[in-house]
# Entry
Amino acid sequence: MSENSTLIKYLLLAFVILTGGMVSTADAVNWSVPGDFSNIQAAIDSPLVIDFDTITVIGNTVIPNVYSGNGFFNVDFKGKDITVQPGNVGGIYFPGSVIIDCQDQGRAFIFQSGESILARLQGFIIVDGNAADPISLWPQDPAVDASGYGGAIYVKNSSPIIKDCIITDCNADSGGGAIFCDENGNAQISFCDIGLDFSSFNAAGVGFYKNIDVNDINDVNQLDVNDLHQFGGGIYCRNSSPRIINCNIIWNISAGSGGGIACENSDAVIQDCNIWENDAWVNDDRIDQHGGGIYVKGGSPTILRNNIIRNDTRWSGGGIAVQDGNGVSITNCDIIDNHCWASAGGIYSQGNSSGDPNANADSNNPNLILDNCLIIHNWGYWSGGVSSNYGSFADIDDCTIAWNVASWSWLVGGLETFGGDANVANTIIVDNTGVQMASAGASASAMGMELGGLEMEIFGVNEGIDVSYSNIQMFDSEGFYDPTAVWPGEGNINKDPMFINPFRPYNFRLKSGTGEWNTSPCINAGDPFADYSQEPAPNGGRINMGAYAGTNKATSSNILRPVPADADADLKVNMVDLAILADNWDLEGANIKNKKADSDNNNIVDGRDLSILHKFWLWLQ
# Structure
């Protein structure tokens, strides 16, 4: 395609967007395969088929029609902004009515010529795709003619929509068992099922590793998995910005990292997906494999509202692993029942790819940002829940990290930092399990938190770590729960959070009410300056702690409770409360005459308490 024609296409696309799609497609034509053309590629190659046209492959809604052979694999859109779909001769769309069987002869579809969001692939079942490296040299330049990338679909310098597809039993020697989004491959992938079941999974790099003699230590140790690019059993994106929305990524396998999805130097958005039962695993523990569900290397992906459940990896990050992340944001995700054989069954973050323990974590540029995440029942060999290591800085707000297990060595069940750092706020870290006990003094212990420096001071406090308004379970030197100890920091408590049900079927919302249930001490116990407006009323005028804090899923108070500034507890904030504040001004600790004047519970009545009073001035329950 010439540069002029490409420019004209994008000018037209911009006009379509700016005018709200008011460009008429009344002249668009539906072409049928078979019928008008013998195969999909023949239809695309025809000069009769132009932008906005639709190619409909004739399907069967009872038993899907199967198509294979020339023109039905390695199908290249060749820069045309058209729709390719299954359906009937009238162009009526019937998703799931056609199977494209690549018969291991190649991948199914290719986008590499500047296709825009007006190019659409939808509704196909794609099986037995194969992106093989013909000369078995690693790493291989992922040009389409010599690529081991993208077993079913390859996207480069294009922005197609891929929707309603089922992709299973596909393989790529190098990466992206199902889909590979290469440089500027900004596909929107939505409502797709990728993987599906154990007998029919997508794989990346598995074939290559079958050829390794794992008994030859020298050969294996010289292999650099980051060069091999055996990433992403389901989807691998590199130097791209795809959107992966409402997809099921299930039973995919990677020989490197990212059993479900791998993102390398990419700003992907992964939203509303189920990422289950994926593996980053090869039976050779000398090759690092990270991120059973999702692996991130560089870039700033956004991961929203995902269920990341029961993924496995040979090394670190059973659910999610981040290396060299630049503000990787994980929000409203459930990280449950993931496993690994090193650090962090749940989420692992490493600040530098070299694994330098002397690297400095930077609180102004966090590698990992966790908000409103439920991180429970994960298992790791060295640490169970979350690990921020080797120069990584993790910003953890409004999370629940509970019932995670570490079973060997350093045995940090909840939150581990080793050469890394973290800020923690409005978070619950309780009921995590480790075995190793403290030598002296009360601490959060390996059962809950380990915030150590380079020497792995399992029970020491890293000075850079700021923990506030959080419920941290504490233990004594014998490893027994110590109800009198509180982790240092403003607003921290050490109490039973009173989850509704920490066992299956899990319900980690907080108990509230009268009679059978007492009210959780984590309700209305978060940062008094944090936004509580999304919590259901009555909400006490203050945010809760834990994974649902500040959201419409938060537990309401169920009883009338004063806001923090209501010093006389009469359910209104007025001059009386101001007088109480003034009477206690600048008092500290045991000298405070009315503890309710200390609105932020930091043991001093000061300007922060006055700011809280101002925030709630004239509030009335």
In short: The longest strand covers residues 54-58. Helices lie at 3-18, 40-45, 206-210, 217-221, 225-228, 445-448, 575-583, 607-615. Residues 16-23, 136-143, 207-229, 435-463 have pLDDT under 50 and may be disordered.
